[in-house]
């Protein structure tokens, strides 16, 4: 049976640690699959849908090289299959919703995500991707702090 682990990646140090942890979590499985996804959102008020889409695509292109490097790094010993995906979300949406949907659609066994460490009032007022995933995911979630 294949162990599937999803890593939410945003380029931060904690998301890089989440990638390392995902590889550790998968090490005992004879067949393993690591999904590394990035959700980019357009920011700020956007009145033109075409403009918002163009901004989202530009942001996604910035991650392509980094995602390809991660894939090569994870596949170095040939024991793990790596799938990468860059998704474009809505400006007002929380990327956590796309992460949860992807986890469901791909029937992953574990979601690994970094936390920015927002606490108290900031966390309550701003919300956070990791908090959103923990609250809404139907899959087990490991938060890296």
List keywords for this structure.
single chain; 145 residues; alpha/beta; five-stranded parallel beta sheet; 5 helices; 5 strands; 46% helix
Give a concise summary:
By secondary structure, the chain is an alpha/beta fold.
Low-confidence stretches: 117-127
How many helices? 5
For the termini, the CA-CA separation is: 30 Å
The coarse overall form would be: globular
Q: Decide which structural class fits the backbone.
A: alpha/beta
Strand content: 15-25%
In words, what does this structure look like?
It is built from five helices and five strands. It is an alpha/beta fold. The protein has a five-stranded parallel beta sheet with strand order 3-2-1-4-5, with helices on both faces.
Topology of helices and strands:
Layout: E1 2-8, H1 13-26, E2 31-41, H2 49-74, E3 81-89, H3 95-105, E4 110-114, H4 120-126, H5 129-136, E5 141-144
Parallel strand pairs: 1-2, 1-4, 2-3, 4-5
């Amino acid at each position: 049976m294949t162990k599937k682990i999803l890593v939410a990646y945003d380029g931060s140090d904690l998301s890089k640690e989440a990638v390392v942890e995902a590889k550790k979590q998968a090490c005992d499985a004879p067949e393993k699959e690591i999904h590394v996804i990035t959700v980019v959102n357009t920011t700020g008020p956007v009145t033109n849908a075409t403009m918002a889409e163009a901004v989202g695509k530009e942001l996604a292109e910035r991650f392509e090289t980094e995602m390809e490097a991660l894939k090569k790094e994870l596949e170095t010993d040939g024991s793990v299959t790596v799938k990468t995906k860059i998704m474009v979300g809505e400006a007002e949406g929380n990327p956590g919703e796309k992460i949860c949907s992807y986890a469901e659609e791909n029937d992953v066994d574990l979601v690994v995500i970094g936390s920015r460490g927002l606490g108290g009032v900031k966390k309550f007022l701003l919300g956070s991707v990791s908090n959103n995933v923990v609250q809404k995911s139907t899959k087990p979630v490991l938060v890296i702090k």
